[in-house]
Design brief:
The complex is a heterodimer of chains A (about 110) and B (about 110). With about 110 residues, chain A is mostly beta strands. Chain A contains no helices and 11 strands. In chain A, strands 2, 4, 5, 6, 9, 10 and 11 form a 7-stranded mixed sheet that branches. In chain A, strands 1-3-8-7 form a 4-stranded antiparallel sheet, with no helix packed on it. Chain A is globular and about 40 Å long. Chain B is globular, with a radius of gyration of 14 Å. Classes of the chains: A mainly beta (about 110), B mainly beta (about 110). At the A-B interface, strand 5 and strand 10 of A face strand 4, strand 5, strand 9 and strand 10 of B.
Chain lengths: ~110, ~110
Amino acid sequence: DTGVSQNPRHKITKRGQNVTFRCDPISEHNRLYWYRQTLGQGPEFLTYFQNEAQLEKSRLLSDRFSAERPKGSFSTLEIQRTEQGDSAMYLCASSPGARAGELFFGEGSRLTVL
Amino acid sequence: GENVEQHPSTLSVQEGDSAVIKCTYSDSASNYFPWYKQELGKRPQLIIDIRSNVGEKKDQRIAVTLNKTAKHFSLHITETQPEDSAVYFCAAYAGGTSYGKLTFGQGTILTVHP
C-alpha cells in the first residue's frame, strides 16, 4: 500500500500519560499535515511541514503538543500530559507540492484518554 | 484566517433523487476547493475538486460549482445511490505551491434511502 500510513490506529491511555503517533506519508510528497477530528466535526488543522520545516502551528496546538519531521519523511506527533479533551481522531495527510491543496489522508490514530 | 460554513448539516434523500450541499468561505485568497467523502471509521477521501479559474466541474454523477464573487461553492450528486450515504466535507485552500492549508466545513451527513 503506497498511501499514507498512521500508527497506532487506536490508543487508550490514562490522563497524564504521554502518547506519540507516527505518520508515514506518500514517499514523493514533500508536504505533511496533522489534523484533529472530533465526532461530528470537520478536520481541524494542527500543523504543517514542508520537508523538515514546520511552517505553521495552529492555536489548537498547545505547549503539550509537539510535532517533528526530522528528515523530511515520516512525522511524529507527541502529546504530553494527556487530558480527556485530547480524545479525538488524529489525521495525517500528505500533499504533492505541484498540486497545492490536494491532501491524501491516512486512516487516522484514534486517541481515548480515560 | 479562513472560515468555511457548510449547509445543511444533515440531508436525507430517496434513492435516485439529487442532493445538493452548499459551502461559503471567507478568504478571497482561497483558490482551491475540494470535497471529501468520509464513511464511518474511514479516512476522508477526495471525490472532486475545483480550482478558482473554473466555474464548474463534473465527474459522472457528481459536480461542483464555484461562484468566486459570492464566495460560495456547491456539490451536486445526481441519481443518488445508497452507497453515497456518508459524511461529506467541503474545504477551501488558500496558498500556492510553497505554502497553504485546507480549512474544512463542519460536514453534511447524507443518507440515501433505498
